[in-house]
Amino acid sequence: MAARAAGPAPRKCGRRGAGRGPAAGGGGGWWRRAAAMEEFRRAYARLCAAGGAAPQEAVLRRLRELGEAPGRGRLDLAAQSLSLETCGALGRLLPGAAPFAEVALGDCGLSEEGVKLLLHGLCSNTTVKSLDLKGNNLRTMGAEALGKLLRQNKSIRSLILEWNSLGVWEEGFSFFCQGLGANNVLQRLDLRNNQINHHGAGELAMALKRNASLQELDLRWNNIGLLGGRALLNCLRSNKTLKRLELAGNNVPSDILKAVEQALDHNQDRQTILSETQNRACMLSKEILNLKDEKTKQFLDLMDTIDKQREEIARSGRISAGRVSQLQEALKEQHSIMNSLKAKLQMTEAALALSEQKVHNLGELLSAMKQEQANMVERHFAELQQQKQEGADREGKLFRDLSACSEKNLLLRNQVDELEKKCKVQQDQLFQLKQDLTDTTAELKLRAVQAEERLEMEKRRLKQSLEDMESLRLKEVDHMTQHMEASERSLQDRVQRLEAIRIALEEELSQVKAAALTERGHAEEELIKVRNQARLDEQQRLEHLEEKLRLMTESRDEAQNCCLKQKQMVSEAQAKASQLSLHTDALRRRIEELQQDLNSKEQEKMTEVNKVKVELQEQIGHLQAERTAQEGLREKIAALERQLKVLSSSHREALLDKEGEISVLLEKLRMREADISRMREEEAQRANLLQNAIMAYVQGSPLRTHSSRK
């Protein structure tokens, strides 16, 4: 506040009573304070007895009253005549933590040594906030002790030195001013009626230039004069913390008082602006911390989603491995079926070789019989020639023999016709058997082709499902990375906007106070909008992630359904293969029965050897064609096995690539987090630089600019 011109302040003598207020704490705090005061009283009595002096009854009574009264944190010994021994005992009890925050020693008539002992004890005290030493006629030694107290004590906020004579002794007052300049804790100083002249005011001005904590200074009723007022006015150009300076009763001109008042008003405005900027910086720091917490939450959510996706990928890998193993088992079963078919083919080939051997034996027998028949014809012709030469007597016999031979010939012809009929019947049976064999082989080939087509379709479907899952996962990872980059860019844009708002606020601090308030309102509205926008973005992102999870669960269910269908188809193929194996066994038994019938009718097929040989050659051609078809099937099976190996290797490579991509994404996330931490550190450094710049600007702005603006 500005200095006020008023009449001389009358000195108040006599005992001052301290106002009793409500209890500061609860019952437990009061009991502890009472116990501490009782211990303080006992220690005082003990120290006095140890020093060979009786304790003062007035001091003991006052300490007892303070201990009994609730809510009292004030040691009030005002208007008590304290002896040197009492001062020494109190000085030894005051260091450290005392059970009170205020000490009132006004009008106690303290001696120089007593003041020195008391203040020496207060130098290391940490609980006393207010000290009242008015009306004690302090001199050089007291001023030096006060200067030492101000240098060393870090807890006293208020110091009352009214009605002393500190300004009479310039050397002691200079030491006191040096201590005041070195102090950074004291906020209120009362130096009324201390006979301070313009030299003392100059010392005070030098101390105030160095002091950065004092807010109230009362110099009423001294002898400062014009020079002292100018010195104090000049010190206010560098001191920006003093808000109240009382200069009434010092013969200071009114223009200096007005200038001092303007400087103090400027300091007050500057303090309010500084407090507002500090509050705003605190709000911004809180907002930054909130953004940091939200970013950490987003990062943790992202890591959880990545872990879930990794688990889904591992689960899909295990499912695909199970599918591959099932397909391998199915292929092994097909291999076993093909091996059985190969064995059956080898058996049929061996049977064909035996039949060929039998045909060869039959041909040899037929040639032998032809040779015998030719020999018989020659013998008969020789006999006939001999019979012709024998004579006519045998002619009748020959005629009779000829008729008999003709009858035998008829009988033989009838037998030949019957044999031809039997051969035709057997040929029909053989043709029917050949037709059945071709039908069964065609049916087997058709079923094998259908099984291969089903297997190929299942492979293509499995490959398509794997590719779809992989593409979905890649799309989701890309979308998440894009969303992260967009969120990071939006956060950076928001930080830049906040930085621009803060810079604008810093530029407008030097302008009108009303404009600063409106800008603060705008900034708060912008922060609220940004916070709402961030919350909306977070909610949208959460909804998007929930939709992704739902899609992933649906794709997983579809994959499980595909697996079940494939298992059913494999079981059906196995059942069909078992049926085919049973049918081939039945055909093999039927072929064996036919071979037995052929063995039983070997003698009846002598005349049809050539036809049988041709038919056997045709069967051999059909069997060779079937063998080539089976070799083609073997090649297809080998190609399918190679394709399965290639697919399994490509699937493993794809899984390794995805794991590498996941590790790269994690590394990018770590780099982003490092960038965010670096940006936060830069923001903190910028905030510190901004605060330092504001302080420098506030401390370096001239008074005349502020007064001209007003």
What are the main properties of this structure?
single chain; about 700 residues; mainly alpha; seven-stranded parallel beta sheet; 13 helices; 7 strands; about 5% strand; rod-shaped; disordered N terminus; disordered C terminus; Leu-rich_rpt; Leucine rich repeat containing 45; cytoplasm
Summarize the model shown.
The radius of gyration is 61 Å and the shape is rod-shaped. The longest helix has 137 residues, at 254-390. It is mainly alpha-helical and 710 residues long.
3D structure, described in words:
The chain is mostly helical and 710 residues long. The protein contains 13 helices and 7 strands. Strands 1-2-3-4-5-6-7 form a 7-stranded parallel β-sheet. Strand 3 (130-132), helix 5 (140-152) and strand 4 (158-160) form a beta-alpha-beta unit. Helix 7 (198-210) packs parallel to helix 8 and helix 10 (395-509) packs parallel to helix 12. The chain is rod-shaped. Mean pLDDT is 82; it is low at 1-26 and 703-710.
